[in-house]
Amino acid sequence: MFATQQTLSSPPVPEPEKTGPATVDWAALVALVKAGDDAGMEQLYKLFSRGIRYYLCRQLGPQELEDKVHDTFLIVVNAIKRGDLREPERLMGFVRTVVRRQVAAYIETAVHTRREQTDLETGVSVADRRQNPEQEAILREKAELMKSALAQLSDRDREILVRFYLKEQPQQQICDEMQLTETQFRLLKSRAKAKFGEIGKKKLASNGFLSVFVRSHSG
């Protein structure tokens, strides 16, 4: 559970881990990341991950910590690719700003979700755990949607998601068998999740399933 007072007085985001300011060519690093270079993204990840992981854990708790770290990292990467960072030497300050905004967004989402759950529990006196035909149809359509979205991913992206989330294989086994470093695995998993989500959203909007889902959960 999140502590609501954290939004009022949060500790500063710790300095990302550095190899030494004098050894980092910020302009070159940003250029590599902007070009989508894997080596550049791995270097960026190593520079900031430890301090950011600690901060996110302190603010949001350990639940899904790795996913939050990598989702935040992808936001930074995508912002750099869009050209939002105009002064490469201020990269680490830019990272800290993104992290603070992400923490605020996670807390706001959690509060909103808890409020909705409370309203639902208050309005329902007797819960019928059996699914009606419409709910069963929605579950079937969601399963088909997931299969279709997975089919549109690259072989490597699909393999990572299926092995980690569906087959629940340990990270080390996947890394060993796919010949990936830990950092490469985390980056690929986060990218694959993002692509999967984007494909799913487009399908929801295009096939009208979203409106059916909303109607089934309203009233």
Could you walk me through the main structural features you see in this protein, from its secondary elements to its overall organization?
The protein is mainly alpha-helical and 219 residues long. It has 2 domains: 4-121, no CATH class; 133-216, Arc Repressor Mutant, subunit A (Orthogonal Bundle). It is 71% helix and 0% strand. It contains 9 helices and no strands. It has helices at 26-34, 38-60, 65-82, 91-123, 133-151, 155-166, 171-178, 182-207, 209-216. Helix 1 (26-34) crosses helix 2, helix 2 packs across helix 3 and helix 5 runs antiparallel to helix 9 (209-216). Mean pLDDT is 75; it is low at 1-9, 123-128 and 209-219.
What keywords describe this structure?
single chain; 219 residues; mainly alpha; Arc Repressor Mutant, subunit A; 2 domains; 9 helices; 71% helix; disordered N terminus
Cα-based radius of gyration, to the nearest Å: 20 Å
Number of domains: 2
Strand tally: 0
- Ranges where pLDDT stays below 50 over 5 or more residues in a row are 1-9, 123-128, 209-219
Total of DSSP H or I helical runs spanning 4+ residues: 9
Largest sheet: none
Shape descriptor reads globular
